[in-house]
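Bench log, entry 3. Co-assembly request; chain sequences pasted below exactly as received.
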Amino acid sequence: MNETTTDTEEVVDPAALAARLADEMPADIAEALNGEIPQFAAAVLQNLPLDTAIAALDTPGLRDPGEIIEAIPRDRVVPMLSGMSADRVADVFLELDEPVRSDLLARLDTETKASVRQLLIYPEESVGSLMTTEFVSVPANWTVAQTLQHVRMVERTRETVYAIYILDPRSKVLLRALPLRRLISADPEDSVLTAAPKRRPVTLSPLASRDEAARVISKYDLLAVPVVDGTGQLVGIVTVDDVIDAIVERQTEEVQRFGGVEALDEPYMDIGFAKMIRKRAGWLCALFVSEMLTTSAMQGFQGELEKAIVLTLFIPLIMSSGGNSGSQATSLLIRALALRELRLIDWWRVALRELPTGIMLGSILGVIGIARITFWQVFGLYDYGPHWILVAITVGAALVGIVTFGSMVGSMLPFLLRAVGFDPAAASAPFVATLVDVTGLVIYFGVAALILRGTLL
Amino acid sequence: MNETTTDTEEVVDPAALAARLADEMPADIAEALNGEIPQFAAAVLQNLPLDTAIAALDTPGLRDPGEIIEAIPRDRVVPMLSGMSADRVADVFLELDEPVRSDLLARLDTETKASVRQLLIYPEESVGSLMTTEFVSVPANWTVAQTLQHVRMVERTRETVYAIYILDPRSKVLLRALPLRRLISADPEDSVLTAAPKRRPVTLSPLASRDEAARVISKYDLLAVPVVDGTGQLVGIVTVDDVIDAIVERQTEEVQRFGGVEALDEPYMDIGFAKMIRKRAGWLCALFVSEMLTTSAMQGFQGELEKAIVLTLFIPLIMSSGGNSGSQATSLLIRALALRELRLIDWWRVALRELPTGIMLGSILGVIGIARITFWQVFGLYDYGPHWILVAITVGAALVGIVTFGSMVGSMLPFLLRAVGFDPAAASAPFVATLVDVTGLVIYFGVAALILRGTLL
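Structure output for the full assembly:
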């Protein structure tokens, strides 16, 4: 690894920092600028060679590009925007406020303006918002030599030239995708259509989800996927580097949401205190209010509690086991659904697996629980009363019931969420635990009523 | 999307299925074979054209490749293995049992054998085990035209030709990486060294982690990263498609482990019952045994419990809030550490953020809790006794303490795990909840002792 860590603390002059960064990789320049305020970053960019500044602005890792762009004088920033990839410009425009946004859009050259306008109409999580319009396409009646010449000419202005898209000369419908590696090995006199693989390329709709783009790229090991509209015309391509960023973003979202937080969308240390509270308080309050049902349930069992206070000793132990088994099942099913290993209609197959799994896991915990109570009682560490054997059996039986219930709820919840149109990944560990807790109490006291009736209760 | 779903249920004859699959994409062939037993899949592959069979075997999505390979006669399988990419062959060999493994290895051609042997020596989660040895490299004294001619010749046998690696003619040390797009646009008479970018390429060590490969590929938007040994010699490359698979695998692992399960490493429905129990029971039992401390804690507070049974009503509510806030903080920090937004030495900055965040979140829940008790009491829904105001204050104050404690433990645990050499992602939601539960009880009864001393206690 030969990345350069730039200790920006010492440098106070933008020109000096620019001189030091000029030969770095764009991602490293972006990283160095992330440590500065946008106005300073803007000054550094203006001191870099235009190509280098464009490459740095094009890096998705550069934070607050909107604020940086705003801080650069209009006549200096327009050439930068024209040089950037259209999809990145569209992303940046989403961050700009009016009137800067309209003003800058008006100053762009016609081609860039049209591309950016087109990209801005697609919804945020769609393939359309992820794609770029800077692809290489040639009509099907061109030769290999003509195409290669064209690729050489446009290479500098295209995000990727490693896939060449062959269009019907009249209808502009996408016919084939030709990898550059095959183009350079083909006979120059051949038609491009002859050189291309015979099968129709895998395509995406601009309204498909980013997850779908990630799945297709990863399944077929592609460097880019063409995006076609309803008439079969090529409107853009999604490249593998954008997909990787989307996958990593999605991964962060998935873990955060599973932890019971609204996805942050920015780095942990960058987010303001008020925003951090908002992102966390929502779910925390919702879970707290739902969990209040446990208080109501316990109030309902107050008679039992007063008669058999020994039962309260195991409440945290039993409830947490239900939550834990539920959290396990949910995490497994969220991923199985995300990876399309399972579909909605498979819910019953999963239920049939989780039922015996839950019973087995509950029995293991039940045996440990009974052993614990017996050990403490027999060795005089604690006195669970004359009916301690029945108490132990109550705890063991309740564990079987609660762990089984937890596994069932935890595994079915992601299916239920998908069935009603939500993302299965919204099923967080705290959410499942809360769902299981109330029923867990009811199961515990129900089992206790059965086993201890006539003795403790 | 024009993926083909192959309804394999109707087909019983391998030759017929092979005929139907022959024109499909390799990933779709793999998907169709995944629905069959290995012996049948092996028969289908033998009925496919050799190139197609090789492409299907090369697809990482094909399951149980080891069993399929074993089911193909040796003389038929050796040409397939020779045609496959060396890194995939090495992965498959890891799944083969002896003596088949040694027998097959011996039958491979010298070049493939050497590559596979080399790849097999690297540890499982290392860059070395992810890389392929099939790259394009040329000596620095070649011309652009020579290099282009070489690329055309070797194109079919290389995993990627989109980056050409330029080596010192004598020492074989890696000097530059030249993207194919620049090669084809360069002057044919120039030396490759002139055509290449001036900076040294970003490289990886074969012993670096897969996560590191993913981070570098995603940061620098590369299609491949060269892997060099201690002397600077090129030993392999990691390609973007392998990295995507590694990222997705890692994502699944991360969610599963955060859910408190050992990572499954296979699809949910494929895993056997006994293995599923093993993967889940380990953590579940460990958490259960730790959670037993809550029982011991409650036994210690039995005096208080008997005097003020009203306190037990809020135990599940208060404990779950601590676990939830901890789970939130852990999920945020796991990702911040994985994305390298934060480093180990930043722990105190995080602690200084989590402290006020926890107090604020705890106060919000505390107010809701006090409101709930007051409402129930005032409207006669439940009678919390003459000291209900003190009980409500106890619950509110305990919530502030427990939520703050949960946020602190949840945020520090990933740092602690990294500090002692573990993966921060081992900090699961159930793990954090369990850690917080025992202390949560102590805080609750401690606060109660302070506030209720002389009245209820």
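The first strand of chain A starts at residue 136 and ends at 139. Chain A touches chain B through 125 residues (CB under 8 Å).
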